[in-house]
Design brief:
single chain; 437 residues; UDP-N-acetylmuramoyl-L-alanine:D-glutamate ligase; 2 domains; eight-stranded mixed beta sheet; 15 helices; 17 strands; globular
Length: 437
């Protein structure tokens, strides 16, 4: 058993050696032993390739504006491990992590001796979240973000009041399949009998899969572009403006503080969810809660402006669709500035298309690497690039020191790629900027 936070995290992270073990049997076994805390939780289940975290953030913010206590389970963490399990946007305390781990550890020991084998890191963290919101600190509603896929994801033992599938992209293809239909099939695994489904999926072949599964499950589908539509979008200096029309009501003049056209889509999913929670589940959510919630929503590392002068942006664009959205925003917002990009990524991503997209908008691009098991080597990334001003530097701290000194009022400095990378970069950058004052 554990007495300190450090030894607790060491144990949790030690489970990474087990990798990914698809299937729900270990989760169901642990929930049985814990007295099924997951059945005590009113929840919303959010899956998809991109936009899950932002959609969770928008919906949490709306619900909080209305005075509800809102739990969230998200991944990966950005600044501290405890973020994975949060209440009203505040990560749970270190001592709560220790307590939850002590609840799960005996089950891990017992499971190891069965044919199922021990639980993975993600299964342990998911079990901790169910235990927390089911038995330790109940909330009015909990938003569970899918970790990977959907059908066999550890979170997929809940029976939510709503299911949201934000988008489909060609990510984690080695596990989920390499076509939109195959990936949609895995994401559709979170659809439950009779439970409303909200989706922002655009590819028709993926939509067909979702609609077919929903039809079999008698689950009504609310699709962006049909049952709710965005109009009048325009970018603001810090955020986005749009109108939203749903089958139930209209919301003219909505604003988000989170930048990017894709954030209007994520926000619209959250608004549609709020409308359904209000209509069918007695959540008292008024127009003012929705408007204030969207404006107040903040999710670190998503087109986040770290500094205005010099202008520095970090963005956790870690797959093809994310990089495409980032490139589009840079082209639209900073036509008259030199765009200096630093990029680091995991080696199991489709790197050629990601780098090609960045090449198209970068006046200068530098590749780096970081200490993580699956991190791509800086030189390998450099070789893929066809940019005329491409460089690589294995030491990302040295690189940031140098680039920060060279960033002037006519340029924008963008650090992007893996969220694991950005979680190390952000605190270091903030210290550099503080020392520069």
């Amino acid at each position: 058993m554990f007495s300190t936070y450090e030894e607790t995290l060491n144990w949790v992270h030690s489970r990474l050696r087990l990798g990914i073990k698809p299937g729900l049997q270990r989760m169901e076994w642990m929930m049985e032993k814990l007295g099924h805390p997951e059945r005590r939780i009113k929840s919303v289940h959010i899956g998809g390739t991109n936009g899950k975290g932002s959609t969770v953030t928008f919906l949490r913010s709306i619900l909080q504006e209305a005075g509800y206590s809102v739990g969230t389970f998200t991944s990966p963490y950005f600044e501290q491990f405890n973020e994975r399990i949060s209440l009203n946007g505040v990560p749970i305390r270190d001592e709560e992590i220790v307590r939850l781990a002590n609840d799960i550890y005996p089950l891990d020991e017992e499971l190891e001796k069965t044919e199922l084998g021990g639980p993975t890191e993600f299964e342990i963290i998911t079990a901790m979240s169910f235990q927390y919101f089911g038995h330790v600190q109940p909330a009015d509603i909990v938003l569970f973000e899918v970790g990977l896929g959907g059908r066999y994801d550890s979170t997929n033992i809940i029976y939510p009041v709503l299911s949201i599938i934000s988008s489909i992209g060609l990510d984690h293809t080695a596990i989920l399949g390499d076509t939109y239909e195959e990936i949609a099939f895995e994401k559709a695994g979170i659809i439950k009998p009779g439970i409303n489904v909200i989706t922002g999926i655009k590819q028709q072949e993926a939509l067909n899969v979702i609609q077919e599964k929903a039809f079999k499950m008698k689950a009504p589908v609310y699709q962006l572009g049909n049952e709710f539509t965005i109009a009048g979008h325009k970018s603001l200096p810090k955020g986005e403006f749009f109108n939203l029309k749903t089958v139930f009501k209209e919301f003219p003049g909505l604003e988000t503080a989170m930048a990017g056209k894709h954030q209007t889509e994520n926000a619209s999913l959250a608004v549609m969810a709020a409308v359904l929670l209000n209509k069918y589940y007695s959540f008292l959510l008024e127009d003012e809660h929705i408007r204030a919630g969207l404006k107040a929503a903040y999710w670190p590392g998503r087109f986040e402006i770290i500094s205005e002068n010099p202008l520095i942006i970090i963005d956790g664009a870690h797959n093809e669709e994310g990089i495409s959205a980032l490139s589009s925003e840079l082209e639209k917002r900073f036509q008259n500035r030199r765009r200096n990009i630093v990029f680091a990524a995991l080696s199991d991503k489709k790197l050629d298309k990601m780098i090609d997209s960045l090449d198209s908008v970068a006046d200068k691009i530098t590749f780096t690497e970081f200490n993580f098991p699956r991190a791509a080597a800086a030189e390998e990334l450099y070789k893929i690039s066809s940019n005329n001003k491409k460089y690589f530097n294995k030491d990302w701290k040295q690189l940031l020191d140098k680039e920060l000194k060279e960033t002037d009022k006519d340029s924008v400095f963008v650090i992007t790629g893996s969220l694991y990378f950005l979680s190390e970069v952000k605190p270091y950058l903030l210290k550099l900027l503080e020392n520069k004052k």
